[in-house]
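Priority: medium. Attachment 1 of 2:
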Protein backbone atom coordinates (compact mmCIF):
# COMPACT_ATOMS: atom_id res chain seq x y z
CA UNK A 1 0.00 0.00 0.00
CA UNK A 2 1.14 3.54 -0.70
CA UNK A 3 2.06 5.72 2.22
CA UNK A 4 -0.94 7.95 2.93
CA UNK A 5 1.44 10.80 3.71
CA UNK A 6 2.01 11.54 0.00
CA UNK A 7 -1.58 12.87 -0.17
CA UNK A 8 -2.96 15.97 1.52
CA UNK A 9 -6.75 16.00 1.41
CA UNK A 10 -8.05 19.57 1.60
CA UNK A 11 -11.51 18.75 0.22
CA UNK A 12 -13.31 15.37 0.05
CA UNK A 13 -13.59 15.72 -3.72
CA UNK A 14 -9.84 15.19 -4.02
CA UNK A 15 -10.31 11.59 -2.91
CA UNK A 16 -12.24 10.94 -6.13
CA UNK A 17 -9.21 12.03 -8.18
CA UNK A 18 -6.51 9.91 -6.56
CA UNK A 19 -5.81 6.22 -6.10
CA UNK A 20 -4.72 5.92 -2.47
CA UNK A 21 -3.04 2.57 -3.12
CA UNK A 22 -0.92 4.04 -5.93
CA UNK A 23 2.48 5.18 -4.74
CA UNK A 24 4.93 7.69 -6.11
CA UNK A 25 7.37 5.97 -8.48
CA UNK A 26 10.79 7.46 -9.18
CA UNK A 27 11.55 6.72 -12.83
CA UNK A 28 14.92 8.43 -13.05
CA UNK A 29 17.35 10.42 -10.93
CA UNK A 30 20.39 12.20 -12.29
CA UNK A 31 19.17 15.47 -13.78
CA UNK A 32 20.34 18.91 -12.76
CA UNK A 33 16.97 20.53 -13.43
CA UNK A 34 14.25 18.32 -14.90
CA UNK A 35 11.59 20.16 -16.89
CA UNK A 36 9.08 20.06 -19.73
CA UNK A 37 7.71 16.48 -19.72
CA UNK A 38 5.63 15.47 -22.75
CA UNK A 39 3.96 12.12 -23.39
CA UNK A 40 3.92 10.33 -26.77
CA UNK A 41 1.20 7.71 -26.56
CA UNK A 42 1.84 6.36 -30.06
CA UNK A 43 5.46 5.67 -29.09
CA UNK A 44 4.71 4.75 -25.46
CA UNK A 45 7.38 7.17 -24.30
CA UNK A 46 7.97 10.21 -22.13
CA UNK A 47 10.37 12.97 -23.18
CA UNK A 48 11.64 15.69 -20.89
CA UNK A 49 14.37 18.31 -20.59
CA UNK A 50 17.41 18.33 -18.33
CA UNK A 51 18.08 21.99 -19.01
CA UNK A 52 21.55 22.72 -17.50
CA UNK A 53 22.90 19.42 -18.84
CA UNK A 54 21.89 20.43 -22.38
CA UNK A 55 19.97 17.26 -23.06
CA UNK A 56 16.54 15.78 -23.56
CA UNK A 57 15.85 12.35 -22.09
CA UNK A 58 13.44 9.60 -23.07
CA UNK A 59 11.75 7.00 -20.84
CA UNK A 60 9.84 3.93 -21.98
CA UNK A 61 8.37 1.22 -19.73
CA UNK A 62 10.29 -1.42 -21.67
CA UNK A 63 13.74 0.16 -21.95
CA UNK A 64 14.00 2.74 -19.19
CA UNK A 65 15.89 5.98 -19.79
CA UNK A 66 18.08 7.00 -22.72
CA UNK A 67 19.29 10.27 -24.25
CA UNK A 68 16.89 11.57 -26.89
CA UNK A 69 18.81 14.69 -27.95
CA UNK A 70 22.10 16.25 -26.90
CA UNK A 71 22.90 19.09 -27.15
CA UNK A 72 19.35 20.31 -26.72
CA UNK A 73 19.97 24.06 -27.07
CA UNK A 74 18.84 24.36 -23.44
CA UNK A 75 15.34 23.17 -24.33
CA UNK A 76 12.71 23.72 -21.63
CA UNK A 77 8.97 23.14 -22.16
CA UNK A 78 7.49 20.83 -24.79
CA UNK A 79 4.16 19.82 -26.23
CA UNK A 80 2.82 18.15 -29.39
CA UNK A 81 0.90 19.71 -32.23
CA UNK A 82 -2.24 18.19 -33.73
CA UNK A 83 -0.13 16.18 -36.17
CA UNK A 84 1.81 14.68 -33.28
CA UNK A 85 5.04 16.59 -33.90
CA UNK A 86 7.20 17.80 -31.02
CA UNK A 87 7.01 21.52 -30.27
CA UNK A 88 9.81 22.84 -28.06
CA UNK A 89 10.85 26.02 -26.29
CA UNK A 90 14.61 26.54 -26.49
CA UNK A 91 16.40 28.92 -24.14
CA UNK A 92 19.66 28.67 -26.09
CA UNK A 93 18.23 29.80 -29.39
CA UNK A 94 15.56 32.00 -27.77
CA UNK A 95 13.07 30.32 -30.03
CA UNK A 96 10.17 27.91 -30.48
CA UNK A 97 10.86 24.96 -32.76
CA UNK A 98 9.10 21.98 -34.32
CA UNK A 99 10.76 18.60 -34.78
CA UNK A 100 9.61 17.17 -38.09
CA UNK A 101 8.90 13.50 -38.77
CA UNK A 102 12.30 13.11 -40.41
CA UNK A 103 14.04 14.60 -37.36
CA UNK A 104 14.82 17.97 -38.90
CA UNK A 105 14.05 21.09 -36.86
CA UNK A 106 11.92 23.99 -38.08
CA UNK A 107 12.13 27.36 -36.34
CA UNK A 108 8.60 28.62 -35.72
CA UNK A 109 9.35 31.85 -33.83
CA UNK A 110 12.49 33.62 -32.60
CA UNK A 111 11.69 37.32 -33.01
CA UNK A 112 8.81 39.65 -32.23
CA UNK A 113 8.53 43.10 -33.80
CA UNK A 114 12.10 42.92 -35.04
CA UNK A 115 13.74 41.94 -31.72
CA UNK A 116 14.81 38.60 -30.30
CA UNK A 117 12.47 36.82 -27.95
CA UNK A 118 13.61 36.55 -24.32
CA UNK A 119 13.69 32.78 -23.72
CA UNK A 120 10.51 30.87 -24.59
CA UNK A 121 9.60 28.71 -21.61
CA UNK A 122 6.43 26.64 -21.99
CA UNK A 123 4.00 25.94 -24.79
CA UNK A 124 0.56 24.50 -25.58
CA UNK A 125 -1.27 23.88 -28.85
CA UNK A 126 -4.96 24.68 -29.27
CA UNK A 127 -7.31 22.45 -31.28
CA UNK A 128 -7.16 24.89 -34.21
CA UNK A 129 -3.41 24.29 -34.47
CA UNK A 130 -2.32 27.63 -33.04
CA UNK A 131 0.67 27.59 -30.69
CA UNK A 132 0.57 29.57 -27.43
CA UNK A 133 3.76 30.12 -25.45
CA UNK A 134 5.30 32.17 -22.66
CA UNK A 135 8.47 34.26 -22.88
CA UNK A 136 10.06 35.09 -19.50
CA UNK A 137 13.73 35.93 -19.05
CA UNK A 138 14.94 32.86 -17.14
CA UNK A 139 17.06 31.59 -20.02
CA UNK A 140 19.01 34.84 -20.41
CA UNK A 141 19.52 35.65 -16.72
CA UNK A 142 22.65 33.48 -16.49
CA UNK A 143 24.70 30.89 -18.37
CA UNK A 144 23.19 28.04 -16.35
CA UNK A 145 19.95 27.52 -18.29
CA UNK A 146 20.91 29.33 -21.47
CA UNK A 147 23.19 32.17 -22.49
CA UNK A 148 23.33 35.37 -20.47
CA UNK A 149 22.02 38.28 -22.52
CA UNK A 150 20.20 41.57 -22.27
CA UNK A 151 16.49 41.39 -23.04
CA UNK A 152 15.51 43.01 -26.32
CA UNK A 153 11.79 42.91 -25.54
CA UNK A 154 10.07 45.66 -23.52
CA UNK A 155 7.85 43.06 -21.80
CA UNK A 156 7.61 39.37 -20.97
CA UNK A 157 4.66 38.33 -23.04
CA UNK A 158 2.33 35.46 -23.70
CA UNK A 159 2.16 34.82 -27.45
CA UNK A 160 -0.15 33.20 -29.97
CA UNK A 161 1.49 31.85 -33.11
CA UNK A 162 -0.30 30.79 -36.27
CA UNK A 163 2.10 28.20 -37.72
CA UNK A 164 0.39 28.35 -41.11
CA UNK A 165 0.96 32.06 -41.70
CA UNK A 166 3.77 32.66 -39.21
CA UNK A 167 1.80 35.51 -37.63
CA UNK A 168 2.88 36.11 -34.02
CA UNK A 169 0.74 38.16 -31.64
CA UNK A 170 1.30 39.16 -28.02
CA UNK A 171 -1.96 38.23 -26.30
CA UNK A 172 -0.94 39.32 -22.78
CA UNK A 173 1.74 41.92 -22.02
CA UNK A 174 1.53 42.57 -18.28
CA UNK A 175 3.17 39.50 -16.74
CA UNK A 176 6.34 39.74 -14.69
CA UNK A 177 7.53 36.19 -15.43
CA UNK A 178 4.93 34.17 -17.36
CA UNK A 179 5.63 30.47 -17.11
CA UNK A 180 3.44 27.36 -17.52
CA UNK A 181 0.14 27.52 -19.37
CA UNK A 182 -2.81 25.24 -20.03
CA UNK A 183 -6.24 25.43 -21.62
CA UNK A 184 -9.40 24.33 -19.86
CA UNK A 185 -10.90 21.17 -21.41
CA UNK A 186 -13.29 23.19 -23.58
CA UNK A 187 -10.60 25.77 -24.43
CA UNK A 188 -12.72 28.68 -23.18
CA UNK A 189 -10.12 29.55 -20.53
CA UNK A 190 -6.35 29.85 -20.72
CA UNK A 191 -4.48 29.52 -17.44
CA UNK A 192 -1.03 31.10 -17.17
CA UNK A 193 1.36 30.87 -14.23
CA UNK A 194 3.36 33.88 -13.03
CA UNK A 195 6.44 32.58 -11.23
CA UNK A 196 8.10 35.95 -10.54
CA UNK A 197 8.49 35.07 -6.84
CA UNK A 198 11.28 32.69 -7.87
CA UNK A 199 13.72 35.61 -7.62
CA UNK A 200 11.81 38.06 -5.41
CA UNK A 201 9.40 36.76 -2.78
CA UNK A 202 7.38 39.97 -2.91
CA UNK A 203 6.37 39.28 -6.52
CA UNK A 204 3.54 37.05 -7.81
CA UNK A 205 3.29 33.31 -7.18
CA UNK A 206 -0.11 32.82 -8.74
CA UNK A 207 -1.95 31.41 -11.72
CA UNK A 208 -4.10 33.78 -13.76
CA UNK A 209 -7.12 32.83 -15.85
CA UNK A 210 -8.23 34.48 -19.09
CA UNK A 211 -11.35 34.05 -21.17
CA UNK A 212 -10.56 32.99 -24.73
CA UNK A 213 -12.53 35.28 -27.05
CA UNK A 214 -13.18 34.37 -30.70
CA UNK A 215 -10.60 31.64 -30.33
CA UNK A 216 -7.65 34.00 -30.72
CA UNK A 217 -7.55 36.67 -28.04
CA UNK A 218 -7.76 36.86 -24.26
CA UNK A 219 -9.95 38.96 -21.97
CA UNK A 220 -11.04 39.29 -18.35
CA UNK A 221 -7.70 38.37 -16.78
CA UNK A 222 -7.98 37.52 -13.08
CA UNK A 223 -6.04 35.70 -10.39
CA UNK A 224 -7.25 32.11 -10.33
CA UNK A 225 -5.20 30.67 -7.46
CA UNK A 226 -2.17 31.26 -5.26
CA UNK A 227 0.59 28.76 -4.55
CA UNK A 228 1.19 28.59 -0.79
CA UNK A 229 4.54 26.82 -1.01
CA UNK A 230 7.01 27.79 -3.71
CA UNK A 231 5.87 28.99 -7.13
CA UNK A 232 3.63 27.79 -9.96
CA UNK A 233 5.74 26.60 -12.86
CA UNK A 234 4.19 23.91 -15.08
CA UNK A 235 0.40 23.43 -15.01
CA UNK A 236 -2.09 21.01 -16.57
CA UNK A 237 -5.86 20.45 -16.49
CA UNK A 238 -7.79 17.21 -16.19
CA UNK A 239 -10.99 16.25 -18.01
CA UNK A 240 -13.08 17.55 -15.10
CA UNK A 241 -11.55 21.00 -15.35
CA UNK A 242 -9.35 20.79 -12.26
CA UNK A 243 -5.96 22.51 -12.48
CA UNK A 244 -2.81 20.67 -11.36
CA UNK A 245 0.20 22.87 -10.59
CA UNK A 246 3.80 22.36 -9.66
CA UNK A 247 4.95 23.70 -6.28
CA UNK A 248 7.85 23.42 -3.84
CA UNK A 249 6.21 20.67 -1.81
CA UNK A 250 4.73 18.67 -4.68
CA UNK A 251 1.71 18.98 -6.95
CA UNK A 252 -1.28 21.13 -5.95
CA UNK A 253 -4.77 20.47 -7.31
CA UNK A 254 -7.37 23.24 -7.64
CA UNK A 255 -11.02 22.86 -8.59
CA UNK A 256 -12.44 24.95 -11.49
CA UNK A 257 -13.22 27.82 -9.07
CA UNK A 258 -9.61 28.05 -7.89
CA UNK A 259 -10.07 26.31 -4.53
CA UNK A 260 -7.20 24.12 -3.34
CA UNK A 261 -8.63 20.63 -2.88
CA UNK A 262 -5.50 18.53 -2.40
CA UNK A 263 -1.79 17.98 -2.80
CA UNK A 264 0.51 15.15 -3.82
CA UNK A 265 3.70 15.45 -1.81
CA UNK A 266 6.92 14.98 -3.77
CA UNK A 267 10.39 14.77 -2.14
CA UNK A 268 11.89 17.43 -4.44
CA UNK A 269 10.72 20.79 -5.77
CA UNK A 270 8.41 20.19 -8.73
CA UNK A 271 9.02 22.13 -11.94
CA UNK A 272 6.50 20.65 -14.35
CA UNK A 273 4.08 17.81 -14.98
CA UNK A 274 2.01 16.14 -17.65
CA UNK A 275 -0.63 13.46 -17.95
CA UNK A 276 0.28 10.35 -19.91
CA UNK A 277 0.02 6.62 -20.23
CA UNK A 278 -2.42 4.82 -22.54
CA UNK A 279 -5.42 6.26 -20.66
CA UNK A 280 -3.83 9.61 -19.73
CA UNK A 281 -4.35 8.72 -16.06
CA UNK A 282 -0.68 8.67 -15.09
CA UNK A 283 0.79 11.93 -13.86
CA UNK A 284 4.46 12.37 -14.79
CA UNK A 285 6.28 14.84 -12.56
CA UNK A 286 9.59 16.57 -13.30
CA UNK A 287 11.08 17.48 -9.92
CA UNK A 288 14.56 18.96 -9.69
CA UNK A 289 16.90 15.95 -10.18
CA UNK A 290 14.25 13.27 -10.74
CA UNK A 291 11.19 12.29 -12.73
CA UNK A 292 8.35 10.63 -10.82
CA UNK A 293 4.96 9.23 -11.75
CA UNK A 294 1.75 8.42 -9.93
CA UNK A 295 -1.48 6.88 -11.18
CA UNK A 296 -4.67 8.91 -10.70
CA UNK A 297 -8.40 8.24 -10.90
CA UNK A 298 -8.83 11.03 -13.47
CA UNK A 299 -7.40 11.59 -16.96
CA UNK A 300 -5.66 14.60 -18.40
CA UNK A 301 -7.44 16.92 -20.81
CA UNK A 302 -4.52 17.62 -23.13
CA UNK A 303 -4.42 15.94 -26.54
CA UNK A 304 -2.76 14.41 -28.46
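Attachment 2 of 2:
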Amino acid sequence: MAEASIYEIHDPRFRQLIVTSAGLDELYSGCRWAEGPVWFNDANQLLWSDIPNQRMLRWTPESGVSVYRQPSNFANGHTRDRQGRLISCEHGGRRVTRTEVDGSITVLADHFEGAKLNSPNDVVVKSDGTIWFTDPTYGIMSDYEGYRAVSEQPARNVYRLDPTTGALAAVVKDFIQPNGLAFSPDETILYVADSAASHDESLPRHVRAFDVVDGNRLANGRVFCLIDNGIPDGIRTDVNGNLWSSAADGVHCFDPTGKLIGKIRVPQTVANLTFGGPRRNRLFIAATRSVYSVYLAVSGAQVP
